[in-house]
Amino acid sequence: MARRHRAAPAPATRFDRRLAEILTHATEVFCKKGYEGASMRDLSRASGMSLAGLYYYFESKERLLFLIQKHTFSTIVERLKARLEGVSDPEHKIRIFILNHLEYFLANPANMKVLSHEAEALKNGFASEVAAIKREYYRICVGLLDQLKSDRGLHFPTRIAVLSLFGMMNWIYTWHNPRVDADAEQLAREMSDIFLRGVMAGGRARR
Q1: Residue 51 falls within a domain, yes or no?
Q2: Is the pTM of this model over 0.70?
Q3: Containing domain of residue 101, as a range?
Q4: Consecutive 10-residue runs of the chain (207 residues): their mean pLDDT?
Q5: I need a surface site. Which of 1, 25, 65, 182 has the fewest CB within 10 A?
Q6: Is 142 contained in some domain?
Q7: 44 phi, psi to nearest 5 deg
Q8: DSSP character for 174?
Q9: 44 belongs to a structural domain
Q10: What is the largest CA-CA distance in the chain?
Q11: What is the domain count for the chain?
């Protein structure tokens, strides 16, 4: 069974704590109104910060969206790397990857909706920095699938497998109902079974 990750350390400074609060409020606003529909005044009201104060620290709502996306992807990648340490079996690694992804997004559904719906909203340097983190996350998944192929002697298109896996995981917020659906651990186990059985059976059939 995959190891549970340690809880993320609390922000160290008063400013960091306040920033985390503002990003949480901004995520809720973007989730409800959409990036285009949200205004700095909406964000000011939700965060309890004056409009002037908000503009002092964040020159635009684009910067707030950037910080939300950067924090989310960085947190997921950091937690994943910590959980993969010391694990050698490639199938177990993929199961950890899926569990790590589902745990975070089921605990933070507003973040998932904002990331999915506002993926193209960032421009220029903001977009490039977030894209670099997303590429790292994608490459980790590619590496895990390639390791599985090598270890088990399988033949399947890695890119299609990776993108199919993200397709399974990323839209969970549109249907998951905690009152009737399983928790992240059980869902990750079942989703891992479906995905791994598919790629391993298909990979052997190609041979």
Answers
A1: no
A2: yes
A3: 62-206
A4: 46 75 93 94 93 90 93 95 97 98 93 87 89 96 97 95 95 90 96 95 64
A5: 1
A6: yes
A7: -65, -45
A8: G
A9: no
A10: 64
A11: 1
